[in-house]
């Protein structure tokens, strides 16, 4: 890196630009403190039984309207039981366009969503971590084969569900020089 060769003001500007670039491409769109307050401490349970195979990972969109993959796809057979990843209240259970969708409102303004999932639980039903909440419905075009799409939103912004399942280590900033 050429930053150590630059005069001090240029190094500071260069480091600031690097920090901004890192934030701009980060797949997590909510701050670490927001996630911490929302419960992103790895106490969520997986919504399906083992074996758990992630077919497609989360890809953050550049903007709210850009292309991206706003969740993870898990291999799941049609009829497989879907479990609540954390306690909450059923927010929605029904069909959106042509897909059965289930969403759960959790503490800290978090909303998890699952598709294609059919459920007999009506909106307003209280669920606890690990409770069966529905079953994987017939493939609806989201995946080439049967799968469960699992998404998480915080204040309307999508996050990777792996943040809540312990699949992504927290970022650590390291100093670039020794401090005196």
Q: What does this entry look like structurally?
A:
It contains 3 helices and 11 strands. The chain is an alpha+beta fold. The protein has a single domain, classed as Glucose Permease (Domain IIA) (Distorted Sandwich), CATH 2.70.70.10. Strands 1, 2, 4, 5, 6, 8, 10 and 11 form an 8-stranded antiparallel β-sheet that branches. The protein has a 3-stranded antiparallel β-sheet with strand order 3-9-7, with no helix packed on it. The protein is globular, with a radius of gyration of 19 Å. The relative contact order is 0.20. The model is unreliable at 1-6 and 9-41 (pLDDT under 50).
Q: What would the keywords be for this entry?
A:
single chain, alpha+beta, 3 helices, 11 strands, globular, 16% helix, 3-stranded antiparallel β-sheet, Glucose Permease (Domain IIA), 180 residues
The second-level CATH architecture is Distorted Sandwich
Gyration radius (Cα, Å) is 19 Å
Please state the structural category: alpha+beta
State the share of residues found in helices, binned by percent: 10-25%
What is the CA-CA span between the terminal residues? 22 Å
Count of helical segments?
3
CATH topology group: Glucose Permease (Domain IIA)
Major sheet: size, sense and barrel closure?
Answer: 8 strands, antiparallel
Low-pLDDT residue intervals, each spanning 5 or more residues: 1-6, 9-41
**Beta-strand fraction estimate:** 25-35%
Q: Can you tell me the number of structural domains? A: 1
* CATH class term: Mainly Beta
**Number of strand elements:** 11
At a glance:
This protein has 180 residues and is an alpha+beta fold.
């Amino acid at each position: 890196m050429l930053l150590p060769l630059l005069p001090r003001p240029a190094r500071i500007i260069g480091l600031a630009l690097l920090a901004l670039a890192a934030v701009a491409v980060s797949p997590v769109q909510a701050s670490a403190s927001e996630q911490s307050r929302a419960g992103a401490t790895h106490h969520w349970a997986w919504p399906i039984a083992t074996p758990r195979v992630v077919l497609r990972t989360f890809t953050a969109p550049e903007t709210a309207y850009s292309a991206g993959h706003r969740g993870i796809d898990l291999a799941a057979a049609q009829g497989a039981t879907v479990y609540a990843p954390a306690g909450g209240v059923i927010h929605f259970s029904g069909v959106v366009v042509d897909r059965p969708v289930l969403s759960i409102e959790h503490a800290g303004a978090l909303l998890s969503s699952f598709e294609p999932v059919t459920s007999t639980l009506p909106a307003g039903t209280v669920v606890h971590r690990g409770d069966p909440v529905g079953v994987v419905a017939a493939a609806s075009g989201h995946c080439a084969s049967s799968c469960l799409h699992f998404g998480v939103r915080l204040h309307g912004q999508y996050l990777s569900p792996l943040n809540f399942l312990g699949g992504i280590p927290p970022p650590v900033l390291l100093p670039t020089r020794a401090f005196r």
